[in-house]
Amino acid sequence: xxxxxxxxxxxxxxxALLRKVSALRSLxxxxxxxxxxxxxxxxxxxxxxxxxxxxLVSFVSDLTLP
Length: 66
Fold this sequence. Notes:
One of its GO terms (biological process) is spliceosomal snRNP assembly. Pfam families: SIP1. The chain has 66 residues and is mainly alpha-helical. It has a domain at 18-62. It has helices spanning 8-27, 36-49, 54-62. α1 (8-27) packs antiparallel against α2. The chain is flat.
């Protein structure tokens, strides 16, 4: 789990991952591509970390992991 505040190297890696996800999504041929759900999930999780979706942020904050 990535705790806030995260180390600057962790944030940089997460942003680099998001840039790669965005680039890969732009190359997909159709909305039916089987890679799309995986890429969307990665983007959503990162968006939750950066606070872009209040509903998702509260959901992730409420999760208890073993």
